[in-house]
Amino acid sequence: MPERPIPCRSSSSGPRLLLVAAGLGFLLVMVGLPLVSVFSYALDHGWGRFWRSVTRPDALQALRLSLEATFLAVAFNALFGILAALVLARRNFPGKTVLLSLLDLPLAIPPVVAGLMLVLLFGRQGIFGAWCARHGLRILFAFPGICLATIFVSLPYVVREVLPLLEEVGTSAEEAARVLGGSGWQTFWHVTLPSIRWALLYGVLQCAARCLGEFGAVSVVSGKLIGRTNTLPLHIERMYLEYDTPAAFGAAIPLVTFALFTLALQGWLRHRFTGAEAATPTLPAPESGARASAALAREPA
Q: Residue 223 — left, alpha, or beta (φ > 0 → left; ψ -120 to 50 → alpha)?
């Protein structure tokens, strides 16, 4: 006798819809409403009051200082992240596991504790305090201290995005490029960097967002000197503590705008990165060698 097909029992969609509705409601209460409130309070007294709060000299100085510290921290962490990921992905050495754990240390340490660590290092009674004083180097309560604190708290983001991709793509194309006579720089520029570009951009965006909004570590090492070492998050705190709520929320608008822009760009990069992975087939070693050869042929001797 022919076998009768077993009817499939469709699972009830009620619990699933309930979970989705609960998740969306939680996001609306915890993320959506505070976001709307920031814009509402910032514009509560009209566009003129908002514009004056954003363009006042201390706010512009704080924004400029935050952007400068963010630029330097992102540049350093991008370079360090690439070099550290290359070493960790391509080399085996004693203590590699310990180094991987240390890279995650800035994510585990509270930012205020990170700032206190810098004070213990570069303060007057710190390890390097006397040496810095003898050579006229001012680290704490100055721009270098803000940069060091910002670099420390955002150190793992780039390397943690690039490292898994380097381990996944392997070394076949790089070895083929070296066999074909490519130098180390040519191999990196034409073979390694194109394979990690989306992960690198994703990590840079995460790093920039973390740097621009840093508060805890910077508040310890900056001294909060108005017009000199007051970053934008510290300026927002000062305005709020002085009961100047419109100025505080107005100064928060650039940070919120950058956060939304970062989220949108991260979503686009994730889509491009996933699409590139799906569209790129796994190449055998000879074809990888041909690709590396074609790339190296375009490089002038």
A: left
**Residue 48: helix, strand or coil by DSSP?**
helix
Is residue 37 classed exposed, middle or buried when 0-12, 13-18 and 19+ CB atoms within 10 A define those classes? exposed
Q: What topology does CATH give the domain 57-111+150-297? A: MetI-like fold (1.10.3720)
Distance, in Å, from the CA atom of 248 to the CA atom of 285, rounded to the nearest integer, reads 58
d(CA 192, CA 254): 35
pLDDT at residue 298, as a whole number: 53
Other Cβ atoms within 10 Å of 111 Cβ, number: 18
**C-alpha atoms less than 13 angstroms from C-alpha of 108 in its C-beta half-sphere:** 5
Long-range contacts of 115-120 (CB under 8 A, 24+ apart): 115/149, 115/216, 115/217, 115/218, 115/219, 115/220, 115/221, 116/220, 118/145, 118/148, 118/149, 118/152, 118/217, 118/220, 118/221, 119/220, 119/221
Using 70 as the pLDDT threshold, list the residues of the chain that sit under it. 1-12, 273-301
pLDDT, tens digit, for every residue of 190-220? 888 888 888 899 899 999 999 999 999 999 9
> Residue holding tokens 């690039």?
162
Instruction: Give the pLDDT of residue 269.
Output: 78
CB 219 within 8 A of CB 234: yes
